[in-house]
Design goal:
The structure is a homotetramer of 283-residue chains. Chain A has 283 residues and is an alpha/beta fold. Chain A contains 11 helices and 7 strands. A 7-stranded parallel β-sheet of chain A has the order 3-2-1-4-5-6-7, with helices on both faces. Chain A is globular, with a radius of gyration of 19 Å. Chains in contact: A-B, A-C, A-D, B-C, B-D, C-D. Chains A, B, C, D: GO terms for molecular function: carbonyl reductase (NADPH) activity.
Chain lengths: 283, 283, 283, 283
């Protein structure tokens, strides 16, 4: 971390010397490292979209705490990102468990003195199946992890954000919230619920200067979404509704999340941004 | 019931004699009793919106099975509606319990030979509170009753609809799905989830010729919504966003539900109709 | 007209005699002829969706004034509907011309003493073409007829509605407002504009007790929409997005319009109802 | 321009030397000057939101051509931005005139060899008034400038983007597209139309690798929106619907536009991002 800061210092020095005529904002740390000194928690971030977001937040200057249910995955992600010179630590966290949520927040507070950013990424496998066949067990798992855990983790984090005078939360939903993925009923419903959760949290948390926004990725090629693209026909069906004729990459989702957490997004709250290659979503 | 049918027969006779030049559709039972011979289940229907819907479906010709958690309330509602000459029976049903859901469906099958219509009305009290303060217990109660029970009741009903060659489901959400009611976080989120449930069930059930639509009432003056209107200031805040400057009445919600279940709505599925006096909802 | 009223009287008599135990509302003219004595203007109503709406409003008790750009078509539609015993007259009206709009309103006032209902149906042919190729001439024609004429006709009608203490307007948009039809760029945009026009008019006209709602039909099989379904491939593409696997019929759109104009819809304003067989539209 | 490029080169050099361990993406020109070497047209850009966007695109590395209806305003904006060391030129352009639109595109091609980015900002004064009072003259002016001119300017620009293998368009709508501003009927409708224009252009232009997105600002404090905030009561009404209790600043809108034009947004097309301090818009 010290190393990274040092390098920023060098860059800033170079910057100041070479481009004096440009407004500081376009040159300084704000633009190049828009999240400098921010502390960010990212759940389900050892792989796929969550991992890409964690990396990007760190590249943009944040101290990032990654997490997922398996310590081994956490260790590997941390090693990879630290190997890239990024300020990243990690802790095991099952977001469905109160003690894990508390430990995640406590870890960030202990290491970095507080929390500024929370990225709540869904952690549960999108069980393949229709609503008409859904069991209570599967329903509960999906809704609890995708929706309730997001609400409860927010509840755990907000006091820390309030102490720092504000913060930014991004909830990862899906374009399936608008335009259901085939055969993923409970998953789709949980993603629609997150649109409402975003609006409600934005309203409630405005008083503490906490902004809450939402990302709705399309079909992103990850191990997580394999059920959607490993079947050639299903992939073709979904691609038929896309304007940009490729599956998304995790990195396609990372820039907008970093943006939404930055000062540039200070007047944006309660909104959902769809990153889905042009799949129909909403007007 | 026999009496009601008899009366319909008399009316039809009078109709046929007096207005021969008009197309049958505008005169016959379809227009005047658009739900004639249909069997309808309505949950949470012994009071408020559910009761108004049950009465209207019966007035429009359906055999209606009302239900709610308390036998006493069921008895009273049945007595009232039978006293109006309507074909209404009832059974106690806690929609959160599998055996109750099954008994509800079985009652309709036993009495009327099947089910054509399901109106899934929320049964849980809208606990007053913010998401930031929500307990797991309250969250679970609201989401389980409002969303999961709707999914599971649908699952129980659809085989009966399929046997009859189709059916119609209306899910009662709320304008709060779009435009959150203050201090009712978990309730609001559950109502947004129902928008997604509607879309997903419409997709899944089309193969059995079952249409699924959604009603999103605004602030309707019922005992259920008392938390919203008993506080003068809160009521004024909500009214400020209305174009029609009064609280809704349960009857304001009944006509559209009957319409959505009728032949006239045969090409409508997956849609939500807002009945909220002009509160902002969606484009 | 006298004849129709007489018949209603006979029916009412029969009704009163045979079904005394049922609440009047379910028996009386309100339910069976929900638009009794209402005066309705319907534009572009000598064919297709407009014609089906005009017929239905008349069947539901309204005095209807049909109109379109060609006197011959008006004469034929009036003859057909009068032949069905309905209270229908007509007048030639090019909604893009101020004098025609005024004459349309004046006709209704002269014949029936006022106006209660306006159905603004688009009259312009949906020129087949992309926005990237659109000429100013085509753009102007489509936007002027579909959007501006609706606004100006409303302006001409509202004073008459205000005199009667209120009224109801239904604007015919299209599901293409949400989910664009291929190769119909300017048409699609004009239909999205109508969603906004509906919201804005609902807000402005609430003070005169005029409700404004919108119908968004899907692909309805009419001569008007021939460009969409005469090409087999295009029709298949659109059907692929439908849950109900058939093109709509004009009658599929008529019931909801009559409903929206009835007392049953008294608490509904500013809303759009999609009748599109389950094509994706909005949450 | 050469100067700016030189400075970029120096920065890159410094960067390469000092921060080798970090992935190039986080260090290189892409992240710090995400629009380096891009050529951007911005209409209505000598003041307010358009000016803030033009400045930001230039700060982020683009060569920007500003424009508005008055040469004097163009000269002043260019002088200001060049004085900040930015690569900005300008030309007078009334977007409602074909020759002006063509000259605008030709200017960019002549100066910079092509066009990569178009920001279509509305240029017409938001005439204060209701739809019920609107004249054809005012309606035409607002719809023609805000909507038709955007379509026609796009038509003029796309061939140039196609030559370069792709491009990015951002259309400036308004939160009033969803949640109408009081007493600005025609303006509001034109902004809703732009949501549809965005969707349609995104579909049509995908084949040339041109992405089309939309910005929906809330109440931004500019001379343009003075009618909305100079009246204390109207300002308070609008603020009451905001979660972030201040009017927006033009700069609040600039970052997201630059983002949408950058590589980071490569998988985003057809979407509208609301920047309105939490005013209700859409789910």
């Amino acid at each position: 971390m010290v190393g990274a800061m040092l390098k920023v210092g060098l860059l800033l020095g170079a910057c100041a010397r070479s481009w004096k005529s440009v407004r500081m904002a376009s040159c300084g740390v704000a633009r190049r490292h828009p999240l400098a000194n921010k502390v960010a928690l990212v759940t389900a971030s050892t792989d796929g979209i969550g991992f890409a977001i964690a990396r990007r937040l760190a590249q943009d200057g944040a101290h990032v705490v990654v997490s997922s249910r398996k310590q081994q995955n956490v260790d590997q992600a941390v090693a990879t990102l630290q190997g890239e010179g990024l300020s990243v630590t990690g802790t095991m966290c099952h977001v469905g468990k109160a003690e894990d949520r508390e430990r995640l927040v406590a870890t960030a507070v202990k290491l970095h003195g507080g929390v500024d950013i929370l990225i709540s990424n869904a952690a549960v496998n999108p069980f393949f199946g229709n609503l008409i066949d859904v069991t209570e067990e599967v329903w509960d798992k999906i809704l609890d992890i995708n929706v309730k855990a997001t609400a409860l983790l927010t509840k755990a984090v907000v006091p820390e954000m309030a102490k720092r005078g504000g913060g930014s939360i991004v909830i990862v939903s899906s374009v399936a919230a608008y335009s259901p993925f085939p055969n993923l009923g409970a998953y789709n419903v949980s993603k629609t619920a997150l649109l409402g959760l975003t609006k409600n949290l934005a309203i409630e948390l405005a008083q503490w200067n906490v902004r809450v926004n939402c990302l709705a990725p399309g079909l992103i090629k990850t191990s997580f979404s394999r059920v959607l693209w490993e079947n050639q026909e299903r992939e073709e069906n979904i691609k038929a509704g896309m304007l940009i004729k490729r599956l998304g990459k995790p990195e396609d989702c990372a820039g907008i999340v970093s943006f939404l957490c930055s000062e540039d997004a200070n007047y944006i709250t309660g909104e959902t941004v769809v990153v889905a290659g042009g799949v129909l979503s909403h007007l």
